[in-house]
Amino acid sequence: MPAAERPSWETYFMDITRLVARRTTCLRRAVGAVIVKDKRILATGYNGAPTGIRHCAEVGCLRESLGVESGMRHELCRGIHAEQNAILQAAYHGVSVKGAHLYCTTQPCSICAKMIINAGITKIYYESGYADELAQALLEEAGIPTVCLAGEAKAGARAAGRTGGGLRALPPAGGKGRGR
User: Residue 87's domain is classified under what CATH number?
Assistant: First the structure.
């Protein structure tokens, strides 16, 4: 393969992150997360119900049945977020994520941001925005840079021969996020 077609490391890991997202059991949105250190994958996670708990695809969406707005009351959900799942998988298997980078299809919410900070993750790459000003402020205060790879993702899709669909536009600053 010519060097021009070889994906960057960021595109490579974001492509894997999108594949992980396809494992979701959430009826509202598919989110994937990959934790990487020294160009090695430490853990992956997607949004969905905890191990041994029936999936929303089987029993319906609790948030929908309660009329919970997108981006609100995250605790009223059967599932956990992809970032949480990846951090928990690493912990369960005794893998430290200190100093690692997180790739996520969606910018983290404030709950995930707090977990990311305490887990010692040092950089976040994401593909689509999530309007959570508190999350952004917490990550900034903790000195954790966030990098939007929307352009990298489009380049990776073109190189892989995928067209159409595209990425959703980033929401305006301060606007309402979409459900997680």
Answer: 3.40.140.10
Which residues form the catalytic set? 83
SS3 18: helix
Decide if 98 contacts 120 (C-beta within 8 A): yes
> What are the 10-residue block averages of pLDDT along the chain, 180 residues in total?
81 97 90 98 95 87 78 77 97 98 95 97 93 91 95 48 34 38
* Helix/strand/coil for 36: strand
Q: Are 117 and 78 in contact (CB under 8 A)?
A: no
Query: Do the domain assignments include residue 113?
Result: yes
Structure tokens at 151: 């352009």
What pTM does this model have? 0.79
Count of structural domains, the chain: 1
79 is written with which tokens? 């599932």
**Range of 103's domain?**
3-48+80-159
Residue 48's nearest CA partner among 18, 74, 82 is 82
Residue 15 lies in a domain: yes
What secondary structure letter does DSSP report for 27? S
Give, to the nearest 10 degrees, the angle between helix 133-141 and helix 110-119: 20
